[in-house]
Amino acid sequence: MVGAGYLAGHVGRRLAALGHHPVLSSRHRPTTPGTRGLDWLPADVVDPDSLTRLLATARADTVVTVHGPSDITWCEANPALADAAHHGGARRLAALLDGRRALMISTDNVFPGHRTSYGESDPTAPANAYGRAKLAAERALLATGNALALRVSLVYGWDRAGLRPNFFTTSALRLAAGEPVAVPDDHWNTPVLADDVAAWTAALLTTEHTGVLHLGGPRRLSRLDWARHLARAQGADPALARAAPRDDTAYACRPRNACLHSERAATVPELRGLEPVDVLEASTRLIAAGEEPP
User: Fold this and answer.
1) pLDDT digit string (tens) for 70-92?
2) Pfam families per the record (predicted)?
3) What is the pTM of this model?
4) Which of 30, 71, 178, 231 could form a disulfide linkage to 35, CB 3.0–4.6 angstroms apart?
């Protein structure tokens, strides 16, 4: 696996539970609890020799890539660096695959956000530098003829130890502490649980499907409505979640509608029984459990 962050850890654990031998990779050894017990090798996507050593040492027969910076605001401020990591890394990896199957986890930011939701057949028009870099990375890998780009909507789950915890984690922790959270009421997502992304990734690796596939959660909601649900689920005052226009927040460079639906998933037998869970149901369950997996 090219990547060793929060989502890579979830995918790695899912693959290991199914009897596979996943190997994470990154420039620095991961320290988050979710990667504990998984094998790791050093790799840098900007260095083709590093990627060559990774594929040889790991004896990889399939590659999952979750590489590159995911801080969308940072990518907007550093578009050349974002492209070098996402697009450049994918281009170097594609040159080394030599027939291996690859699955890239991509993003809803490849769309402009004018429509309520986007399916696989909708034309792309990235909303920001992150989306442009990811779309170019998709194309580099898909050109190999044996790759699948799995575009996912906003991924969530407990990530207390992460370098940049996701929206669910940061909002839930702040609200539980009685701290206000200012979030947009004019920015919508179809959030998808990290466990569901991992389940789809593992299932799709066993197929011959190529091209693009979308994974979004079944509910479209605003960040504000989600934050207020998180407050209520913890017995906190929902008024702590305060409305802030998207353009006045760090979400200004994101598409107004970062929502996905799939036109293809129903035709993939391996995905039957893996329908993504509703975000409000999963959020309530995560808060009740109170702990992320070891």
Assistant:
1) 999 999 999 999 999 999 999 99
2) RmlD_sub_bind
3) 0.95
4) 30
